[in-house]
């Protein structure tokens, strides 16, 4: 162990790995006991009295039986419709509890995944005589995506140097099923989420980026106390396997566009919720080692600890989200150990009714990265304007910066560690990550029809340090003579809500290489085109 942070809590004579193993075993035992209690309680309450035949459903039940058609065009995978963006500059109303302090961000793909995921509802929404099962959450989602990639730089390291870049035409498929128990035996709740991710017609070996067959990505029990901190301000303690979508998704994300997700085994305590004046999340979890054709298993060598906060009542002009993450890896092998501390602050909001909005995040890293000290910094911003027009166009200027390693031969690493994030906010082409980069981008979003949303963007990419590499595609020039300009990218995407249950998305990305790419290997313009359908169970 490289620091004294954990030794203070490890009993004498116990190794760090033994301590983590014992802690994980305790978590599993608690999760198992919770599911057993749930089963016993459900058996005891199996006979639910039928409501009178002439009873009228209340307003909430009516809304569930016949949801508003506007729900059909709610954005998926992090994007918001233009109409909803305008509404979100105002706090929501908390049902029965007065004002909500939450203001949703307008910045691109920074909205967190809902909990449970957005494809899940209580099963009484299906009708079918299941109105007494409002406590049972259920959801099914199917997604198929065809991709055409010409000159795919991500695959370049797998090809002989200077050979022409080739193209690929894979089909990616992802199926999800969620089952959860809520309300009926509070404070005990539980959920399980199954996901099957596959790829077909791919020219390259399967990787965990695309394939994770027949996997349980969430399986947890929790204690939920609805009004523990005051009316409408709950406390939640969750134990088991879970996914983590935190802050603005730039460092910890469930992964939406990608075909697989990051599962974690651990515990999470949440004080308050999204509508509260303030909210605190504390978690400790070990990574689940993703295995392509086998069940994922706990990776006892990789742990994440963190605490995040939300302060929504300080000013109507800002929502503050401080956070602190620790990435702790102890491999007991030739792989370097790492203990990386990340401290950051996010601030966002809209400037009243002016149409202007902003979103900014800064993060500092310290610790130990193998034999080197870790000293890194990253920042990003998004400033936008929403026009008062029926199409609700929004124009935004974005920028992302992350330090790179200044000298590969010294004992200090300045390359920012992106932790377990998604590349969606930077580029869905997945060629760029929040490490050793300077990336300004101009974006336009609009909604010409109620069921159609479009966005287009232009971006450029530089390396922060010329002796460090283009991280996502593993290209490096240790001499620094290749320069720093990686290239430019044009992108556009259109979403069409074909049916309340069916969404069709198509996108195109064109990459134009710069001097750094020309001088370090295969070089040509790259193209990425995709067509994707998402089918869900509910309207």
Summarize the structure.
The protein is mainly beta.
Describe the structure.
- The chain is mainly beta and 539 residues long.
- Helices cover 9% and strands 44% of the residues.
- The chain is built from four helices and 24 strands.
- The strands form three sheets. It has an 18-stranded antiparallel beta barrel. Strands 1-2 form a two-stranded antiparallel ribbon. The protein has a two-stranded antiparallel sheet with strand order 20-21.
- Strand 10 and strand 11 form a beta hairpin.
- The longest helix is centred in the N-terminal third of the chain and has 29 residues, at 16-44.
- The chain is globular and about 70 Å long.
- The N and C termini lie far apart (52 Å).
Radius of gyration: 24 Å
Number of strands: 24
Largest beta-sheet details: 18 strands, antiparallel, barrel
Percentage of β-strand residues: 35-45%
- Average of the residue pLDDT scores: 84
Terminal CA distance reads 52 Å
- Helices and strands, in order, run as HHHEEEEEEEEEEEEEEEEEEEEEEEHE
Silhouette? globular
Structural class: mainly beta
Indicate the low-confidence ranges by residue numbers.
1-15, 33-90
Helix content: under 10%
The total of helices stands at 4
């Amino acid at each position: 162990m490289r620091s004294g942070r954990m030794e203070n809590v490890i009993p004498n004579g116990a190794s760090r790995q033994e301590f983590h193993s014992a802690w994980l075993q305790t978590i599993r035992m608690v999760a198992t006991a919770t599911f057993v209690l749930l089963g016993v309680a459900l058996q005891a309450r199996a006979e639910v009295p039928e409501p009178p035949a002439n009873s009228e459903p209340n307003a909430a039940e009516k809304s569930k039986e016949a949801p508003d058609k506007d729900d059909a065009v709610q954005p998926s995978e992090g994007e918001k419709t233009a109409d909803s963006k305008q509404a979100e500059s105002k706090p929501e109303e908390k049902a029965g509890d007065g004002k909500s302090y939450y203001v949703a961000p307008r910045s691109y793909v920074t909205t967190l995944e809902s909990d449970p995921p957005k494809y899940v509802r209580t099963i009484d929404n299906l009708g079918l005589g299941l109105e007494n099962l409002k406590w049972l959450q259920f959801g099914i989602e199917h997604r198929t995506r065809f991709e055409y990639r010409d000159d795919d730089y991500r695959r370049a390291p797998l090809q002989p140097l200077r050979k022409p870049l080739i193209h690929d035409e894979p089909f990616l498929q992802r199926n999800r099923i969620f089952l959860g128990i809520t309300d009926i035996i509070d404070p005990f709740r539980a959920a399980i989420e199954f996901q099957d991710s596959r790829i077909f017609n791919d020219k390259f070996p399967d990787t965990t980026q695309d394939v994770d067959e027949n996997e349980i990505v969430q399986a947890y029990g929790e204690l939920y106390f609805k009004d523990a901190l005051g009316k409408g301000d709950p406390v939640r303690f969750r134990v088991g396997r879970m996914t983590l979508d935190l802050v603005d998704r730039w460092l910890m994300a469930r992964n939406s566009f990608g075909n697989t997700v990051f599962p974690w085994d651990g515990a999470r305590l949440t004080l308050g919720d999204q509508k509260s004046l303030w909210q605190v999340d504390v978690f400790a979890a070990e990574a689940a080692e993703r295995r392509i054709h086998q069940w994922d298993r706990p990776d006892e060598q990789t742990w994440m600890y963190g605490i995040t906060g939300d302060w929504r009542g300080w000013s109507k002009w800002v929502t503050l989200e401080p956070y602190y993450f620790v990435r702790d890896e102890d491999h007991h092998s030739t792989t370097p150990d790492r203990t990386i501390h990340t401290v950051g602050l996010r601030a966002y909001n809209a400037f009243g009714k002016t149409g202007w909005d902003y979103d900014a995040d800064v993060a500092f890293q310290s610790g130990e990265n193998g034999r080197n000290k870790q000293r890194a910094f990253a920042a990003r911003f998004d400033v936008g304007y929403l026009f008062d027009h029926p199409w609700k166009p929004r124009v935004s200027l974005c920028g992302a910066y992350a330090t790179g390693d200044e000298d590969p031969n010294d004992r200090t690493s300045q390359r920012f560690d992106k932790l377990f994030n998604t590349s969606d906010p930077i580029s869905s082409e997945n060629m760029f990550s929040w490490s050793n980069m300077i990336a300004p981008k101009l974006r336009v979003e609009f909604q010409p029809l109620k069921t159609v949303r479009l966005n287009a963007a232009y971006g450029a990419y530089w390396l922060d340090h010329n002796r460090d590499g283009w991280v996502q595609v593993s290209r490096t020039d240790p001499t620094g003579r290749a320069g720093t300009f990686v290239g430019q990218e044009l992108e556009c995407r259109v979403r069409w809500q074909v049916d309340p249950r069916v969404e069709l998305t198509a996108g195109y990305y064109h990459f134009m290489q710069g001097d750094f790419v020309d001088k370090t290997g295969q070089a040509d313009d790259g193209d990425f085109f995709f067509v994707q359908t998402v089918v869900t169970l509910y309207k």
